[in-house]
Amino acid sequence: MRALILVDIQNDFLPGGTLAVPQGDEVVAVANELMPQYDLVVATQDWHPADHQSFARHHPGSQVGDVIELHGLPQVLWPVHCVQGTSGADFSPRLNLAGIQHVVQKGTDREVDSYSGFFDNARRRATGLEKLLRENRVEDVHVLGLATDYCVRATAIDAVDLGFRVTLIERGCRGVELKRGDCQQAIDEMRQAGVTIQ
Fold first, then answer.
1. How many folded domains does the chain comprise?
2. Would 144 be classed as within a structural domain?
3. Which domain, by its residues, includes 169?
4. Other Cβ atoms within 10 Å of 86 Cβ, number
5. Can you say whether residue 20 is alpha, beta or left, with left for phi > 0 and alpha for psi between -120 and 50 degrees?
6. Could you give the residue numbers annotated as active site?
7. Which ranges constitute the DSSP H helices of the chain?
């Protein structure tokens, strides 16, 4: 069985959103094109409480892009984004929601971020994505979405660690690029971890 994982194709990561990924909207057409080719399609969804500690506004004197230590983990500070129940957390209206069988929510714990679709960043809590894939006898996982250098990277590498055969669909990914070269570095790290880059 093959599964397609659509990572965080949500309004706040698209042009006009609070954490817009440059050209992030370009991934939607790729996702819609590919969905019918897979046995299982799963979408991950950032689903933050309003007081999530990754938001820069909760750390006076800090700015978006700063890195702090949060409960023992390095944490990039972000603008408020993908707050539960807001339109910013909704999937793109252009995304074919009828083609998605399951949605996995992440980032729900205010004290720890969750880039990966599988675990929070401390690996204390699983999202249920691995269980879902195992129950559906998935062996091959293809990944696309937003953003290459954070949530896509983490999801793909965790999938490899869990024993899946993983392919990154590069044309269906766009990155934040807080620093120039972040996306290429992420792709190199995925390749070194055993992800096939397509």
1. 1
2. yes
3. 2-47+82-197
4. 15
5. beta
6. 8, 106, 151
7. 26-34, 129-135, 153-161, 182-193
